[in-house]
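Predict structure. Chain length: 141.
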Amino acid sequence: MYCMRNPGRDFLLKIMDESKQWLAFAQEDLLYGKMGINSFPRAASWSFQQAVEKSLKSLLLVIDGEVPRTHDVTYILSLLRKHYKISEDIVEAVLLIAEITPSVRYPADDLPEITAQLAKDYYQAAEKVVKWGLMLLLPDR
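Prediction complete.
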């Protein structure tokens, strides 16, 4: 666990590097999921959830110096709201992605089918959140 009180320069550089790694992984998950939208929409959707989760965690890391061990993107977003003004379209995108819980990774009788169209909707939402994270952390990019 990191302490953000009076952080040193080396510590801040380490946090920024780690945050960039989270964002790189988020972009990778987004692209990986995009490749599987039509063939494997359920698996692709999990990649989109992971992209959003990692993007949000990259922003939280810069603020708090740590990230919670959770897949709950709405919880992570609530932590970010204390520090960022978050537009309604980002909130809506995260809420849509929140439909994708870890349970979609496992068979169950009561889970709705994830169609290619729904996976495309998840992709668009995830792309919006990842781009927002990139804009905040790497504005010159």
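Summary: The radius of gyration is 15 Å.
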